[in-house]
Design brief:
mainly alpha, about 75% helix
Amino acid sequence: MTTRYAYRLGLAGAALLTFAFVVPAARAAEDSGSRFPPPSSGQQKGQKNQKQQGQKKKKQRDGELRTQYQHARALIMGGEYEAGIAAMHALGHDDNPEVANFIGYASRKLGRYDDSKYWYERALAADPNHVRTWSYYGMWHAEQGNLLMAQDYLEKVRLICGNTECEEYTKLKGVIEGTETY
């Protein structure tokens, strides 16, 4: 009887460990901007015809919004920070963690550390597990000379990713060690 109980307990523990490591890694993997544009609110019952008619328009709007977001992100990643910030604001989704994070990143690159902090915190308020924001905010702390806080954020990134191999972890670690700038 105790052997059977121990076996079941072991299986339950293995399942729990698998869930604890696989789910955060999957969340981190999906965090590549694919959550933009944000999902629209659900339709109510009885609106099938409206829903069917509106789906085509919604897909078109979402495609346009995604294209605008990708353009704004490309501006920022290309070093055109002012134009990128303006393009992100023009999307009208400042509370989206992807948008807020890239506004924070661009602000940090412009040396506007107070603005950057505001936008990183806004991104984390929208999604407390937004791994890219934790990484970039850790870089912000490293640039400010607060390596202890940057180390704390590195640990948070590790927990969200579920490993030490995700891009967000390796980049933040490189910044902390002084082998990478970002």
